[in-house]
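Troubleshooting: if your tokenizer reports a length mismatch, compare your output against this known-good record of 270 residues.
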Amino acid sequence: MNTKTVKGYFLWSIPFLFLACNSGPKTESFLPPDPKNCEWYVKLDKQKDDGLNKIGVYMLRFYPEGKYTLCADLLFEQGNWTFDNSKKLLVLQPDSLQQDVPKERYLIDQSEGNNKTQFSFYSTFPVDKANPDERVNVQPVTNASKSDPYAAPMHSWRKKPATEETPAQIKQRTRAYLQFLLALYQHAKDNNIENPGGTWYAQPIKFYGNKVSMAYANELTAWNNCFYNEAQAVEGYKLISGGLMRVKITGENDVERNINCVEQLLASIN
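Known-good structure output:
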């Protein structure tokens, strides 16, 4: 499949990004990227791994109202972006600072004109273009789905409660997580993303090519952190595992089977 790179502008007068008219993670069909509603997925270079994707960036999404979502290994970051006209770069400011997360990220498109779009991230200014904190090759996906797993409302289950929750509240938190999973896989189906994933979200339930299983106790740290304490996290885990025992999965491919499984899990938790 032939691809071409078009140097352009955001429709809202933000001079940034080479808009690559290549496909998303699956290349059977595609839409040109829409800068107002675009997701940038890391595209691994199998022939050259320079190790500069240190935090394991998976996806970066920009929203037209000045919000962004950054997904990386063990990192889910949302915040505000602005284009600094004097510095000629994009500034990402996280909503809440986590340990070892910079107060600001500076993002520059350092594409080299070889049909690749390359993002470089920096945490200090002026930037040293030869030494970015992170450097990743990316490809755009224009969202063609009503489902958006990266939107803030889909992540209410992440917010650790300050007080112990009732069984009804634990059930609601667990359902919110499953609704996020459903949005993740429906979004993937609608956008022809063949292998949605990454480790940027808790995974008490594991989806594989030929099976679905519950995670082991030593894999539940992220899940436990979403609840008041580990005991309440176990109750949420049991809601999913109990439903999984009754699931009969059907579907023509992995993504459709995952959708079918999650729909049945949601129906089991009423």
